[in-house]
Design brief:
- With about 200 residues, the protein is α+β, with helices and mostly antiparallel strands.
- The chain has one domain: Glutaredoxin (3-Layer(aba) Sandwich).
- It has five helices and nine strands.
- The strands form two sheets. A seven-stranded mixed beta sheet has the order 2-1-5-4-3-7-8, with helices on one face. It has a two-stranded antiparallel ribbon with strand order 6-9.
- A hairpin with a 2-residue loop joins strand 7 and strand 8.
């Protein structure tokens, strides 16, 4: 009986660690699964739609977060700089609108129109995508490189090192990473700490 209890305990511990590992999300070098989410134009957008690109800059962001608002113009600039070079931006709102006021789908459409977003702005309805990435903040960036039609995670973290003042940015994390990927050079930084608002979800 004691032996059975010990085996059962070990099984529970193993399952717990397995769950923790999955909860942490993708790591650098991991293949990212395809996802399909609704864009603000009502059309469904999949990661697989970008198989003809060199990669994708996935940005988890939202309407209400002050940090997301501070970075909106910079996200637009990044998309305009790199989409013609093969690395377009795909923005995803991960927040539960029942918890985060102003992050509902209709408000997303208004925000995107007012700011003239140049990229898709997708709604993570049901919050099924962001946990796979391990996103915790808005904004939180994940740069994917297309390797033989598999999207592989190459960078995780912040856009740059100064959220509050774009004029005093000293390190352009995302731009440097994408430039290195385009040039076939090793990335100087594969991970940085994302600074922003916590992703809003219902408490269990």
């Amino acid at each position: 009986m004691k032996a059975f209890k010990s085996i059962l305990l070990l099984a529970v511990v193993a399952l717990s660690f397995s769950f923790i590992g999955k909860k942490d999300g993708y790591k650098i070098g991991d293949k990212v699964d395809n996802f399909t989410l609704k864009n603000i134009d009502g059309k469904m957008v999949s990661l697989d739609d970008y198989k003809d690109k060199k990669g994708v800059i996935v940005v988890f962001t939202c309407n209400h977060c002050p940090y997301s608002k501070m970075y909106e113009n910079r996200i637009i600039a990044i998309d305009q700089k790199f989409k013609d070079k093969g690395y377009p931006v795909v923005a995803i709102n991960p927040n539960d609108p029942s918890v985060s006021k102003g992050d509902d789908f209709e408000s997303m459409k208004i925000r995107a129109k007012n700011k003239e977003f140049t990229f898709p702005y997708l709604f993570d309805d049901g919050q099924k995508v962001y946990p796979k990435f391990g996103a915790t903040k808005t904004p939180h960036v994940f740069i994917l490189e297309n390797k033989n039609n598999d999207f592989v995670l190459s960078y995780i973290g912040a856009i740059d090192d100064n959220a509050r003042d774009p004029k005093n940015v000293s390190e352009l994390y995302v731009e440097d990473a994408v430039n290195n990927l385009i040039e076939g050079k090793p990335l100087k930084r594969m991970e940085t700490k994302a600074i922003g608002c916590s992703i809003k979800t219902k408490k269990a």
